[in-house]
Design brief:
0% strand; 67% helix; 407 residues; mainly alpha
Length: 407
């Protein structure tokens, strides 16, 4: 809308023009159009404020300046259009840093189709710059972990030679692990065999991934066959190899066989770590063999292997499962003295067990420790504590427990 002051000014200085109604109408139309165009231009400029003004300058842009443009983009959705504009400049010189920052921005914008286009462009421009394995490793992570495009991640792996870069076992193992974690058991073996075409030298990590995949598939016999393949591949199994197998055996209740693997490890001079011991202690706990679990904890310490919170927690839960709440309370005290914090469920279960046995002093100690560890007992637990405190005291018989809790 044109202001009255503008109209008054035009009327005063150009009286002759307004003698013609058509000229008057045209002037108003032109003035309105001009003002609207200016308004739209300002609005468009404000909406496109993320567009780097340096792209329109004629001065030469260095590679570092181009990368900085993308790093400072506030809107990741504009990355593709900015990249297209930069590629039209005469000073356009692609490099790995540029490709990396563009793909990072596109990944944030979840524009994975655009990443496909960029990758095709890189393939066509492979003579212009050298791309390292680290770049492809990160792209595969985007496809596998962010986009959920497993097939595309595999495709990039096997296409790497077309870009002038051959993968190492690190990238190969990463893809193989992605496939196993995604439970794509139908293609695990195919990917594994494809390593030969890529010139991959199979290592212990690769074989461990295959063992993990076979265990998750439920093929324990196949997993042990891979264990036998280690010497043929000129590899030596490690503690991770045996931990995977022991975990599967314990899940199946075959704890004795898991301990046989522990003995085999020791014969092969492979020191079990905390994870391996935790697996065995957990397996014993599931079978109600908490005393043997505590013996294993002692053996663990003698070997110089430091137990962690999970180790202590498994023993504590084992004692609770066996309803040895007084022993659990003592073990909890040992945990706390070693700087290990018991879980909320541990405190709750031990208090409940002690309350049933009317061990008031023990309940008091556990309750104080619970509060010191910043856990707040809920109303139901308070009810059990109060029942324990007032059990056998007839002087309190006239009060209901609910009234005491409310007060």
């Amino acid at each position: 809308m044109i202001s009255r002051s503008v109209i008054a000014y035009i009327t005063k200085t150009h009286q002759s023009i307004f003698q013609s109604p058509s000229l008057y109408h045209n002037l108003l139309l032109q003035s309105t159009t001009s003002i609207r165009f200016h308004s739209l231009s300002s609005s468009s400029a404000s909406q496109d404020s993320d567009y780097p003004p340096t792209l329109n300058q004629k001065d030469w842009l260095s590679s570092n300046e181009v990368v900085k443009i993308f790093q400072t983009l506030k809107n990741p959705d504009s990355a593709l259009s900015v990249f297209t504009q930069i590629s039209k400049r005469k000073d356009y010189k692609p490099n790995e840093a540029l490709y990396s920052v563009v793909i990072t921005k596109l990944a944030v914008a979840k524009n994975f189709d655009a990443i496909d286009d960029v990758m095709e462009r890189i393939k066509s421009e492979k003579g212009l710059c050298r791309i390292s394995e680290t770049f492809f490793y990160n792209v595969i992570k985007v496809y596998g972990n962010v986009a959920g495009r497993m097939d595309r991640a595999i495709e990039i792996l096997f296409d790497m030679p077309k870009y002038g870069c051959w993968p190492t076992v690190k990238t190969f193992n990463f893809v193989l692990n992605l496939v196993v974690n995604a439970k794509r058991f139908d293609i695990v073996h195919e990917v594994y065999l494809g390593g030969v075409k890529l010139g991959i030298e199979i290592d212990a990590c690769c074989l461990n991934i295959m063992i993990k995949g076979l265990c998750r598939r439920g093929d324990l016999d196949g997993a042990f066959k891979v264990l036998d393949e280690f010497p043929q591949q000129k590899c030596k199994p490690n503690v991770r190899t045996y931990s995977i197998l022991m975990d599967e055996l314990c899940d199946r209740g075959k704890v004795e066989e898991a301990f046989w693997l522990l003995e085999r490890m020791e014969r092969e001079n492979i020191e079990p770590d905390t994870v391996a011991f935790n697996i065995l202690i957990s397996g014993l706990r599931k079978q109600g063999r908490v005393d043997e679990g505590m013996e294993l904890l002692h053996k663990m310490r003698l070997k110089g292997c430091k137990p962690n919170q999970a180790t202590h927690q498994e023993i504590l839960y084992g004692l609770i499962d066996a309803k040895k709440h007084a022993e659990a309370k003592d073990f909890m005290g040992q945990m706390i003295s070693e700087g290990v914090s018991p879980s909320f469920d541990s405190f709750k279960s031990i208090i409940k067990g002690l309350c049933k046995k009317n061990l008031v002093e023990d309940v008091d100690w556990v309750l104080k420790q619970m509060v010191r560890h910043e856990f707040v007992p809920k109303r139901g637990l308070w009810m059990q504590i109060i029942r324990c405190l007032f059990s056998g005291h007839s002087s309190y018989a006239c009060f209901s427990i609910e009234e005491i809790v409310e007060n």
